[in-house]
Amino acid sequence: QVQLVESGGGLVQPGGSLRLSCAASGSIFSIDPMGWYRQAPGNQRELVAAMFSDGSTSYADAVKGRFTISRDNAKNTVTLQMNDVKPEDTAVYYCGAGVRATRWGAHTPYWGQGTQVTVSS
Questions:
Q1: What is the mean pLDDT of the chain?
Q2: CB hemisphere CA count around 114 (13 angstroms)
């Protein structure tokens, strides 16, 4: 079994910064990808940013130039640095990971419990 534990959400003013962190633990051989997703009320869960073990990244257009994802493959952690946040960034943010438990196994998706990010003055 795999657990993803998130931290760093909260209330931030427009234009401010926030940092989200996620640590994966359990039966892990490799993770691809590892990233952040968000879900606002009434909306579907959407990709914010994801990073693959080779260092390649994928960002939602809405956050390009403002958010930066980083990852420590050895520690199975991923961090999202959120700068110049906007009210439309308000959502529950989820850490997601595609985990391979053994060298030859398939990647299985796991999710964290979610952390609330609220951007408001």
A1: 96
A2: 12
Taking only the tens place, the pLDDT of each residue in 74-90 is 999 999 999 999 999 99
Q: Which two tokens stand for residue 76?
A: 């199975």
Q: How do strand 115-119 and strand 10-12 relate by DSSP bridges? A: parallel
d(C-alpha 31, C-alpha 41), whole Å = 29
Residues facing 109 on adjacent strands: 98
Backbone angles phi, psi at 37, to 5 degrees: -130, 160
Q: Quote the CA–CA distance of 78 and 42 in Å, as a whole number.
A: 27
How many Å separate Cα 49 from the centre of its chain?
A: 7
Token pair for residue 6?
């998130």
What is the C-alpha R_g of the chain?
14
Which pair of structure tokens corresponds to residue 12?
């931030």
User: pLDDT class for 101, splitting at 50, 70, 90?
Assistant: very high
Placement of tokens 């308000």 in the chain: 90
